């Protein structure tokens, strides 16, 4: 059976981008593949969270994984820092990752632009840690959103380079994957690019948002003055709302509002009201479970311990073999 690995950074509550880009695929894939889903708490250290924030955020992602329907009996759910073998592999891969190629990564350049005062080495080698996460379980499929495609290419590069250096084919090639045909990019509500936690207040709808919060955010989403000719191309901020509608609403609803736009009869207030209600319906089953699971400390502990043991078993096997390949020998 093919192995699947994916993770989400522990930076707080999951939003619709995380859900439709990744978690929804996790839930589907757990029935068909050997799955490892983790909480990337080591990756989140690049932004220096306080100890209390770090733990709270790890817990939140764990709770939301479970609330979304990942079954710890089917998939292995674990916290990245509970599997120290990952950091060992990261160190080995770092020896064959070149600073030039790391500096050219789009997400590194974006981060440097956004936070010029915190360009740490962890940020530079972020894709190497990500490659270690994936190839430690020899995964071939990685369910992620469109924004992670380049990181997957780098994971293949580092795995292949290890293979070439030691003249073997130990690591298979991992590819970004979606159960739908294409990798998705969920837009945010600010009229610009993707939905993301760091893209500013109000841009993201969280799975844990109350219906009132969802309505408020959607009603504030950026729109324009309305179409001025029939069948005109939608500007970015309007296209974004339609793209969101495509994800959470029925095809009929989408066609209805698209028709109104094309005939210049659209009222954005109506579109937003519908979009907000459909988002509320889409997130309701998850939202309802979040509080219950969050209050069950014993269950969360049990899931984390069980998952860490399973993930370590797989990771330890890889590390044993990698050490042998590299040439670390016992005296
Ligand atoms: P992160 O935590 O930024 O995002 C987690 C997952 O959510 C997807 N995603 C989106 N998909 C579609 N539209 C959006 N607006 C959107 N926003 C986020 C991301 O594509 C991702 O799949 N580096 C990773 C975490 C990670 C990882 C890994 C993933 C660490 N190691 C190994 C896969 C395999 C990250 O920061 O994702």
TrEMBL record:
Encoding gene per record: trpS
Subcellular compartments: Cytoplasm
Stated name of the protein: Tryptophan--tRNA ligase
UniProt-listed GO biological process terms: tryptophanyl-tRNA aminoacylation
HAMAP family in alphabetical order: Trp_tRNA_synth_B (MF_00140_B)
Keywords: Aminoacyl-tRNA synthetase, ATP-binding, Cytoplasm, Ligase, Nucleotide-binding, Protein biosynthesis
Role summary: Catalyzes the attachment of tryptophan to tRNA(Trp).
Family to which this protein belongs: Belongs to the class-I aminoacyl-tRNA synthetase family.
Subunit structure: Homodimer.
GO cellular component, one term: cytosol
Binding positions (L-tryptophan): 133
Primary localisation category: cytoplasm
Residues holding ATP: 9-11, 17-18, 145-147, 186, 194-198
UniProt-listed SUPFAM superfamilies: Nucleotidylyl transferase (SSF52374)
Motif 'HIGH' region mapped to chain: 10-18
Entries under Pfam families matching the protein: tRNA-synt_1b
Catalytic activity, as annotated: tRNA(Trp) + L-tryptophan + ATP = L-tryptophyl-tRNA(Trp) + AMP + diphosphate + H(+)
CDD domains named among the record's database cross-references: TrpRS_core
């Amino acid at each position: 059976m093919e192995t699947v690995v994916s993770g989400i950074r522990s930076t707080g509550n999951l939003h619709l981008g995380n859900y439709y880009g990744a978690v929804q695929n996790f839930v589907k894939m757990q029935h068909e593949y050997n799955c490892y889903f983790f909480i990337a708490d080591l990756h989140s250290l690049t932004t220096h969270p306080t100890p209390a924030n770090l733990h709270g955020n790890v817990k939140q992602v764990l709770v939301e994984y479970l609330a979304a329907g990942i079954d710890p009996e089917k998939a292995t759910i674990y916290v990245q820092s509970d599997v120290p073998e990952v950091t060992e592999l990261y160190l080995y891969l770092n020896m064959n990752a070149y600073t030039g190629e790391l500096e050219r990564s789009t997400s590194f350049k974006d981060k440097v632009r956004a936070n010029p005062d915190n360009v740490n080495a962890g940020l530079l080698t972020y894709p190497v840690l990500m490659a270690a996460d994936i190839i430690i379980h020899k995964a071939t499929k990685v369910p992620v959103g469109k924004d992670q495609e380049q990181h997957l290419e780098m994971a293949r590069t580092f795995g292949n380079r290890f293979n070439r250096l030691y003249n073997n084919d130990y690591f298979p090639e991992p590819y970004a994957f979606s159960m739908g045909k294409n990798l998705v990019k969920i837009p945010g509500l600010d009229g610009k690019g993707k939905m993301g936690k760091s893209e500013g207040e109000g841009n993201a709808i969280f799975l844990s948002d109350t219906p009132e919060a969802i309505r408020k955010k959607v009603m504030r989403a950026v729109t324009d003055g309305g179409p001025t000719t029939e069948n005109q191309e939608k500007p970015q901020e309007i296209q974004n709302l339609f793209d969101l509608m495509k994800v959470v609403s029925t095809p009929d609803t989408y066609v209805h509002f698209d028709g109104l736009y094309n005939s210049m009869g659209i009222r954005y207030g109506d579109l937003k009201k519908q979009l907000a209600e459909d988002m509320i319906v889409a997130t309701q089953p998850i939202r309802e479970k979040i509080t219950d699971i969050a209050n069950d400390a014993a269950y969360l502990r049990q899931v984390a311990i069980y998952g860490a043991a399973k993930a370590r078993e797989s990771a330890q096997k890889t590390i044993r073999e990698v050490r042998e390949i590299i040439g670390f020998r016992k005296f």
